[in-house]
Specification:
The structure is a single chain. The chain is α+β, with helices and mostly antiparallel strands. It has ten helices and 16 strands. It has three domains: 6-131, 2-Layer Sandwich (Translation, Eukaryotic Peptide Chain Release Factor Subunit 1, Chain A); 135-264, 2-Layer Sandwich (Nucleotidyltransferase, domain 5), CATH 3.30.420; 284-377, Ribosomal protein L30/S12 (60s Ribosomal Protein L30, Chain: A, 2-Layer Sandwich). 41% of the residues lie in helices and 23% in strands. It has a five-stranded mixed beta sheet, sandwiched between helices. Strands 3-2-1-4 form a four-stranded antiparallel beta sheet, with helices on both faces. Strand 12 and strand 13 (323-324) form a beta hairpin. The two termini are 45 Å apart. The structure holds zinc ion. Zinc ion is lined by residues 317, 319-320, 322, 330, 332-333.
Length: 381
Amino acid sequence: MKLLNQAQISELALYRSPRFFITSAYFDTDKSHQNYKEIKLRLKNLISRAEDQLKHLPLSKEKKEALREDLRKIEEYLFQNLRSYKHPGLAVFSCARENFWQEFILPDPPRNRIVFDRNAYVRPLSAILDEHKKIGTLVLDRKEAKFYEVFMDDIKLIETIKGEVPPKVREGGWEGYESKRIERHIETHLHEYFKNCGQTTFNLFKKNQFEWFFLGCKEEYLPYFKEHLHPYLQQRLKGQIKVSPADNPDKILTAVSKLEKLLKEQEKESLVKRLISELKKDGLAISGLDSTLDYLNRSAVQILLVTRYFSQPGYMCPKCHFLYASYEICPGCKIHTQPQVDVIDEAIEMAMNKNCEVKHINPPTQLQEYGNIGAFLRFKP
Ligand SMILES: [Zn+2]
């Protein structure tokens, strides 16, 4: 099923088996940066690493065997569906011994990860939800307006407004004087109708708490329509899409998603620019893996920025759980650290644990020139 709201996540988070653990698996199935063969290889490696990890878990033989069943089921499912799967991400939650199985189609690629725990590991789902805006979209022409709610790849028609504007005067059908009078009559109707559209949109925004406002209308109507738009909506008007009320919802959804993606990328890239200017004036920001891990360990990070797909091996101290890019001995505890296949995964996990915001920045980005990772700080210790 599609990931659509917090309620789905809360319900999943409540699931618990009295006897067995749950396997949570996240897969990056985004074919825009990797082909089918590469995806398959990466996921195969991920599953075999999880099998290795399973061997060392302090669990009963029965519990481990149950988790191994999950992995086999997940692997089978993946390789049956992967080739035709068209979405950028997939999450699967399984407890085979209890016949529990749930999968979510994800609109963004997650980081590949498999987690065994008593509860489903749902934090990446919440993170994806947080990243998406609730978009109120009004599509109108001179006869009809439709208001849609768009959230997480899903579109719902909420309201239809009929215009009742008389059709335009046919050429030559009227004497000059008469025709001017009628044009004015039409204008009045059109203004009334746009006013009504603006008011309805404002009411729907207040009722449903949309974050962004998208508009689909012809350029020629735009100045008229904007006249009737409440400043609250003008502020939230993020852009226009080229669609009409007669278009089917799928076409409208495609246009909305495309604009949303573009705006989000712009937003993130301006965040990177802010980071760089903060770095240049030696303000509350740092970059590079060593420093970022250092400040993350000391709970000084507010927003973590990572280039999407960036990954690197590193170390974790088994005692204080601090993360390091290169220390084989923990400077604090003076004991050997443990190698980590991907210290970036662990850093993201630690950031989420400490309630930091995590922003995945799509490459190419200026962040790549700053070590692919950086952070805004709460304070400089
Ligand atoms: Zn330590």
